[in-house]
Every structure is written in structure tokens, then in C-alpha cells.
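Can't paste images in this forum, so I'm doing it all in text. The chain is below; anyone willing to post the predicted C-alpha cells underneath?
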Amino acid sequence: MILDDILQNVILQKTIGETEIEINGIQFDSRKVESKCVFIATKGTASDGHQFIQMAIEKGAVAIVCEEIPVEINPKITYIKVENSSDALGKMASAWFGFPSSQLILVGVTGTNGKTTIATLLYQLFRQLGHKAGLLSTVCNYVDDSAVEATHTTPDALALNELLKQMVDAGCEYAFMEVSSHSIDQRRIAGLEFGGGIFTNITRDHIDYHLTFENYLKAKKQFFDELPADAFALTNADDKNGLVMLQNSKAKKYTYSLRGMADFKTRILEHGFEGMLLDMNDKEVNVSFIGKFNASNLSAVFGAAVLLGQDELEVLRIISSLKSVSGRFETFHAPSGYTAIVDYAHTPDALTNVIGTINQILQGNGRLITVVGCGGNRDKGKRPMMAREAVNGSWKAILTSDNPRFEEPLDILNDMLAGLDPVQKAKSLTIVNRHEAIKTACALAQPGDVVLVAGKGHEDYQIIQGVKHHFDDREEVKACF
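Text version of the structure:
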């Protein structure tokens, strides 16, 4: 392609050299640069691409996009100065792959909890409605029915546009995508054309990255601020920041709720460990999902599908047949009579929701044993909160390792224990080894009890001292059976 063609949506501050030159590729990783590439020097959290400009030139780059033009200029190279390289990368990647997001209806789902469930269920729903669809999620990416392994909630701009291009080539009409706060802040989604946006909720998460809750909130809101006028913005009216998301959005605004007036209103009529009977916009529907948070997620799925022009009754018929997403309130029944639930809950709010749901169904007719840990090298402030939520809502809480990463597991557990008073500590056990913790919880369980294994959900690994080891909570639970 010609460099000028892929710069069409980028605001250029300064250009040195020729832009009517042929380009064979785009790269922001200098190690991957090949002959006739354009290298985009982005400022990441770990390193600054500006330090690798010379290396990129040596490897064959013919053009450099950067925020600061180097002191030494190579007369054979084109230099383009932009305000934000990451933003330029998103827009250039979109142009390079032929603007794939404009050739299908792309719906983004953002919020702290529920993104994976909503995006995945929309993908499954639209495929059952007879449409070809793609999915970009934490668990797995899908190009129609072909799985592509996911490494981040939202891939980098190049990988993202390449996946969308594959979806277009496969004939997909729709794509449903989890949009993380990191990807919004790092401009990975720059250049994408969204047909709709869904907001789930917002609670404390990723403070290690955003530093304050306000910054985290601002990142989520930015997604809705940038939606075009012909898109829809569907928000959770039950979240105190739900309507804040819509304040400056040009998109058509809609709400969903379990509690008050909304465009898409859902009420729980009956619930148990096998599922719920819901009233969705005055129509009754049985679903195999459990808990208020899932009723809220299904309300968002229903609302989005209707806003995308699908028939209400047909949507509800398919919703009644959908199954829970891997590692999201996934239920297993032990031969000896207790129930085990594996859930991804890794924030205090998500843990409160899951524990509250279980206790609501138990109604004192069984005990809850919760196994939970906290990730290493992440927000330390939520550790004592997680421990308190687990202990307060459970008969017994077993504090254990999650993904310690480069931290000492005992240090993480001590941070969790610091949130407990002596009475709460008496209701808890500390078992560093996650395998032993799950085994102990299952050994303590009696008929009618529930064992909740929280924090890792679909993950099939544990990161210890930076090394990935195979570990799957679901496999551990089944082994205990």
C-alpha cells in the first residue's frame, strides 16, 4: 500500500520526507520490522518505542511515526510526527486491513463485570438466529465458528484489525467485543467504527494501572463519548454510574434494569441452582443461569439484540436455550450431594454478588465454603476487601494463592488477612497451595453445602514466579468428586 493512503485518518503535526511511498507492513514492535515497513514508536507501560527507532531503520523501516522526531535524521527515511502514536497506530491498522469494522456491525461491551458473558451470549445468540458472527473476548476469539486463542481482553490494534478482517472475509455480519479500560486508555480501539456500546457496571478494578477510580471511570466513559450518532448506547440503569456513561454520548441512548423503569426491564420470578424464571419486558422466560448479575447480563443481551433489529420473541426463545459461559458461575454437582461453583469473580463487588446469590438460593439450608485468593503484582488495596467479603458471606473462607506472579504467595495472603478482625480470622483458613485449598473445601462440604472456588474461572494456568503452570479450578473440583 501507499503510506499516504494509510495516513488518511491520522492528524499529522509534522512530516519530513515523502509520504507517497510503498509500504509492505506496519509494526510497533521493532523486533518484527522487515523491509519497507512503517515503524510506529508507541509509548507503552514497560518500554518506549522511541528508543528503538534506529533499530527499526536498521531492520528495513522506510518510515517512522512518532511523537518526538529524533535529533539525528536519516535523509532516506520519512518521519511523521503525531500527537499520540497509539491513536495513529489504531487508525493506520484499520486502514491497512481495509477498514474491516465498517464492513460489519461491531458492538463493544465495557464495564468491570459481565463483559465476557454478554459478548459471548450475543455471539451465540446471533449465530443461533442464523447470522455469521465473530467474538473478541477474554476466554477465546471466534471468527464465525473457528476459535482463535485470546491473550488479552482486547488485542493490540494490529491483531484486532486483522481478526476483524478475518471475520469480514468469513462473511460475518456482526462482531461482539469486550472492550477493556486498558484498550480504551491505550487507544487500541482507535479507528474502529462501533454500531453499539453496552455498559455493564463499574466497581474497583485495575487501580494498579489507572491509579484512581476516577481515571478508571473516565476511560470507560470515553468509549461512549466517542460512539457515533447512528450507534446505540445501552447502559445498566441499576449502576450508579450507568447514566454518567451516556452524558456526552452522541449515540441513541437506552437503558436496562432489574429495579426500576427502563427500556428493557427484567424481574426474577423464581430462582434455584438449576436456573431462573424471568419476566423480560412482560414476557416470561426460563433460563439456565443463576443470580441477579446474570439476570442483568441477560437483560443487556436481550436489549442489544432487539436494538439490532431482531424479533423479541425469537430472541427470548433462544435466550432460554443458552448455557453459562466457561468459568462464569459454572456449576458442578458432587455425587455425595454438595454443589461446587467455579467463578471468575476477582473483584470485591463480583465476589459479593456471587456469594450473595448463593446465600439467597441456600436460604440457610446449607453452608457456603469459599476458596479465594488475590493476584500478585496487581492492586493491593482490594486484598483485605476480598478477604472480608469472603469471610462475611461464608461459613468458612479458605484464603489461598491465585496467580502470585512475581510476589511471594504468603505476602499476598498476609495482605488479605490484614483486613480481618480476630472473629473473622477464626472463620478462615490459610492454605497457600491452591490444589490443597480446593481439596480441603471439598472435604469439609456436606450434602446440601456449596463450595465456591473464586478468582480464576476459565483460566487453565497459574503464574508462579513468572512461569505459567497448568492449573484448572474445574479439573481440581472434578478430581475431588
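The radius of gyration is 24 Å. The mean pLDDT is 93.
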